[in-house]
Design goal:
about 550 residues, alpha/beta, six-stranded mixed beta sheet, 14 helices, 27 strands
Length: about 550
Amino acid sequence: MFIGIDVGGTYTDAVLTDGNRIIAKHKTPTRHENLLESLVNALDAVTMDVNVSAVSRIVLSTTLVTNVIAENKTPPVALILSPGPGLGHSEYRFRTMTHIVSGAIDYRGREIAPVDREEVVRAGQDIKAQGYGIAAVVGKFSNRNNSHEILIKDFLDNDLEVEMGHLVSGRLNYPRRIATTMLTAATKGVFSAFLGAVKTSLKNRNITAPVFILKADGGTLPPDSALRIPVETIFSGPAASVLGAMSLSPKDQTSVVADIGGTTTDLALILSGQPLLASKGAVVEDYLTHVRSFAVRSVPLGGDSTVEVTREKVQILPRRNGPAYCMGGPGLTPTDALRFLNKTDVGDLSRAAHIINRKAAEAEKAPEVLAQEIVSEAARIIIKSIEQMFNNWEQEPAYRIWEFKQRKRIRPNNVVGVGGAAKGLIPEVAALMNCNAIIPEHAEVANALGAAAAQPTVTVNVRIDTEQGTYTVVEDGYSGKLPHGRKFTEEDAVRLAKDALFDRAERLGVKEYVRRPEVIHSEVFNMVRNWTTTGKIFDISVQTPRDILFYLGQEQ
């Protein structure tokens, strides 16, 4: 049996499934001041009458990292950067204390300027004097030679906690690697404390099943790997909703997924059964990062959004002042309109009728007319956002390739609605888009189901320099020698990367899921000296495919 738990912005959901059916499910309000309590309450509810020794895996999707970054509750992180020649130092502005130090590695991973020990020591002393306890050390080409970052860390005082860029991202784009490293350093402490508390809670309940953490790209990480780069969990909520929609929907179709929560609606696209991945890293606050994620958009519209009514118009504001009035909240929301029209059974019908009647009288409208205007306005906002998202989706290389294979322009077969308000809103959205509306059974806990269904994933980035006869597995910081005496081809490079992927998966305990690893990035550069090719540089990224372990949808 599998357990999936999604700690969302409004509710924490949990499901217990055997892969063929949902055995138990539970929703509980999320307490942002105590996420662990929300998680444990949901866990206890679905395991109440279960022999927990039969649970084989637990997957968590959590808003923890999202919350602490959005609410500016992370400890301050200073930067020690070694950019070498190139852009002026004024280009590296990250709203935090920043020291630019000497030393440089070139694009091939060769040292072209040494690290100045005294300069680094002074930088560390200044950082500590200004009250910082954490520093992120990032060199421009540290993903190709990490020796300078390791030296800088060794030169710094042991009292300073240091995060190194080469352990966070193996990809080029220096500003993105800086941002990803800084956010990783900022969130490690709170994420470590949370996972430690989760492990203790599971131990106290005699639950020994392995725990995985859902990532923004729909993959999962064992806790130790998640602790290394917690920022990869930043958008795990939208990823969970996409995977849950996949599990509950017809297989291999093209669908827009609309996860309508209490505060926001998350939109994503499934192309012929596969979620669309963003070609560039996620934007966290206003930082461009290397965090891989689904191509999703969060719209500030939810079942608990504030509604303002005048004689002239109905306006849904992009904010939540609390739960719906029919759920004991302070004011009118789309959920109240849906409850009044019997499009949902959530909340107290008498309270929904009270608030709708009162606002309708103030606006001199019939109550049924007002309620329908609210629902229609919510549907209009979602449709407008979907159309805007298609403009973005169509710029993604993966979408263009998919559309080329179809040999015609295709809009989705379905609009799949999950989340609390989906049952009331999605039929109207789908009708206006001329699509099928799918509101699957268990849609209200789709995020938790998506977490439970997520297949473990592993990614490896390998850099190979045949002239120097070396290769580096970026994720492990491991360097090795190439075999001598024969020509090294691109096929050899891919084979080496896949072997490294299998080794890493075995160490992470997920080797059984490494089937048909795919190459997601491949670049080859010839090294030329005196008009003669003297070697090649390969940059290869391989990963296990993103997928789900089971489908509960119709007509499989």
